Hints:
Layout: H1 19-34, E1 38-41, E2 56-60, E3 66-70, E4 79-82
Antiparallel strand pairs: 1-2, 2-3, 3-4
Amino acid sequence: xxxxxxxxxxxxxxxxxxxxxxxxxxxxxxxxxxxxxxxxxxxxxxxxxxxxxxxxxxxxxxxxxxxxxxxxxxxxxxxxxxxxx
Length: 85
């Protein structure tokens, strides 16, 4: 079961179908930042859920949850997931 944001706004993505889908999702996140729904936050370099490091972290300003975007790096298809702190 995919995790969702407590406010129902965000849902996990386990792999982007194509590079263009990833780029479209980044544009979607940028739009949410412009509309003051998300902000970028500092990431924890030691966070390694599933032994996967890195990514850009975002905070939902509606429910204060932290999410991270890990870009695709073939054969890995990328990831958008809730950060478990």
